[in-house]
Amino acid sequence: MDHRSRSTGKLSRNTRLGPIAMLFGQGRQYLLAWSEYQDDLRLFALAGFEKITLEADAYTRPAGFNLQDWLSESFGIWREEPQDVEWRFLPDVAEEAAGYVFHPKQSMESLEDGSLVVRFRAGGRQEMEWYLARWGDRVETLSG
């Protein structure tokens, strides 16, 4: 395939990929695939594909690979070193926030003042910041 990076605009030509999964984010779609060139799993924005050629040989997913475990280290589709995250939602939005699944391995704690603390471990700080922007000054980042 030939793929143009959304972030750099760089075109990668004739890269062999082993598809793992399609991931659908808010307004964006990605292919999670093994990149022969980088010898690692990578996310490819579908909009970046300029040429795709199918080959006869089949790709076999790595033994022991678990997509849910792989995704649980990310926030949304962003992949980076996981960190401990702790958010405090103020009392006036705590009930609404309690209805969200921010991360598949999150824990929630209701505090005596009516606020809500959400904790999880993941990478993807930029996407977290974008996500938290909708809560404005009604959420505080305690860690992460």
Topology:
Elements: E1 2-4, E2 11-12, E3 17-24, E4 29-35, E5 40-45, E6 49-51, H1 67-72, E7 83-89, H2 91-98, E8 107-110, E9 116-122, H3 125-133, E10 139-143
Antiparallel strand pairs: 1-2, 1-6, 3-4, 4-5, 7-9, 7-10, 8-9
Q: Which features would summarize this protein structure in a list?
A:
alpha+beta; 4-stranded antiparallel sheet; 10 strands; 36% strand; 144 residues
Quick summary of this structure?
The chain is an alpha+beta fold and 144 residues long. It has three helices and ten strands, in the order ββββββαβαββαβ.
Describe this structure in words.
This protein has 144 residues and is α+β, with helices and mostly antiparallel strands. A hairpin with a 5-residue loop joins strand 8 and strand 9 (116-122). The protein has helices spanning 67-72, 91-98, 125-133, and strands spanning 2-4, 11-12, 17-24, 29-35, 40-45, 49-51, 83-89, 107-110, 116-122, 139-143. The two termini are 36 Å apart. Helices cover 16% and strands 36% of the residues.
Main sheet attributes: strand count, strand direction, barrel closure = 4 strands, antiparallel
**pLDDT below 50 for ≥5 consecutive residues: which ranges?**
none
Q: How many helix segments?
A: 3
Shape verdict: elongated
Task: List the helices and strands in order.
Answer: EEEEEEHEHEEHE
Number of strands: 10
The value of Rg in angstroms is 18 Å
